[in-house]
Write a structure and sequence with these properties.
Layout lengths: L8 E3 L10 H5 L5 E5 L3 H14 L14 H26 L7 H8 L5 H11 L4 H11 L5 E6 L15 H10 L6 E5 L4 H7 L16 E6 L2 H12 L5 E7 L16 H29 L12 E5 L5 H11 L3 E3 L15 H9 L5 E4 L8 E4 L3 H11 L28 H12 L5 H12 L4 H12 L28 H8 L14 H19 L6 H25 L10 H12 L4
Helix pairs in contact: 2-3, 3-7, 9-10, 14-15, 18-19, 18-20, 19-20
Amino acid sequence: MQNNSPHSFHIPVMGTGYTIDSPVRVAQYGISSVISLVDDILIEKMRKFYSDKFEMPFQEISAKVEDFRAKRITSYLNMVDDIVNEKLNEVKQSFEETGSELEKYINMLPDLSAIKDKFNKFIKGSGNKDNIKQWINENITGGSIDVNIMTKLDKQNNISDTEMNDAHAALRGFANSNLSSSVVLSAGMNPSLYAYIAGFSDFYPDKNGEIKKKVTLKVSDYRSALIQGKYLAKRGIWVSEYRVESGLNCGGHAFASEGYLIGPILQEFKDNREELVESTYKLLVDTLKEKNLEVPTRIPDVNLSAQGGVGTSAEHSFLIDNYKLNSVGWGSPFLLVPEASAIDAETIELLKAAKEEDLYTSDVSPLGVPFNNVKNNTKDNDRDRRIANGKPGSACPKRYLALNAEYEGDTLCTASRKYQKQKIDELDQMDISEEEYKKRYNNITVKSCICVGLGTSSLIANNLDTKVEGKEVSVCPGPNMAYFNKEVKLTRMVDHIYGRDNIIDYNDRPNMFVKELSMYVNHLKKKFSEATLPLNRKDIKYFNSFKSNLLQGIDYYKNMFSNVGDKLSYNLDDLDIFRNEIDKISV
């Protein structure tokens, strides 16, 4: 259960493009980050860009090549690995230079870092240079080059071959790469994809419990983690990390739970962590024996991390200390750190100016899942212009979200021009009121081409061609973005995380637990207002369960806040206010 990373934070995946090259930017400083594997077209463009930048050989992998998607991903990840290793070597070799990259690496580490302490003792002493070099080579490590696969984005490309599905091909691309890192599986369980993992030897532990290709599950609660962990263990695959994400107080897609709050969820993980590990390990051992594979002599490491709305060093430290986490994810704030994320200047300005009222959960995603958004992003503005000109819908040049099989022929994206035209033609034949027509029309045309928009910023930031994509950008910050209003250097953001600096100007920022609670109360009220009355038995059960979970969460926070002292900023009166709002909802 140890954390081998030099840092106690990681940069989660952000969109398809915002962290597409984050490892190249920050891994040499020991900072782990996650690359999205959705967009192989973007990945191929980035491979060409970095091959030119670092004068590396490049041969295009065209869409005519067999298994091109997997091969593009493998080639890009191998190139990123090579670049990061070279940059890390340069960091190590710079130890005698004043203001060196190694000095930057050491200074960014947590103050209580054993590596920082040992290095400073070496420097203050008169240690032998060869000994120092040897120690540096053995102890200065890079951040992990992790990848993300949204399990639901598994578009079928060959009706007779599941392995050519988008998510399967992405997994194969990662599995065939040289990386020793993790695949972060998000957006729920995909049994076919999970079974496919077992076909690659790098995912199995050796006799020492070491695993070259690790699995990280992004989960919403303990029960989901236990089910998925056991499912994979029965196939001989070990989950090396459970990454808990807030259902609403996060960036990207918002998978709202039934009122389960992140504090009680993390407490359940803390209380049951041993059970989770031991029950899955037993299944793992049984399966490995059945397959005549190596059985590890020790339980492989299992890390626990969390992300969603974290914004201060106090919250960061509290999560680490109170819930015994190995790492905390910091996403949206890094959108204002162009050293770490691939983001264009115009979008940075939009995010800097964004207030609470500008950040909202939208219906723009073709997946039909609420999507965290910011007002006046250029992709949505372009959508609105097309609607106003009587030409709703997008061209759909990449088709990664073309998952709707409602009409004969190819599956379609619900943001596409072709799909929306058919839906509007159907709507025009209906005998409904003008008000109902407008409502249904808006529900059709609100969808935005995010699979393209979320990658465009990285192209603009790196001065790459956007002829196919256009220049319009989608961006998906969490609500926490409202409290960060300045572009900062990487070192300053890291200092903020560790409490050596403060970049938040707001005195009335709610802490992450209270913010998430308020969002869930509003979510409940919205769902209730939209429900058809009188409620049926199923709806009554749903709303009562939602209310009960929130009220239990409030009781948990009351007890937690009364025991944390000044570790967190909070107002107990806020909890009573939310309790009263919940009680007013009469089911």
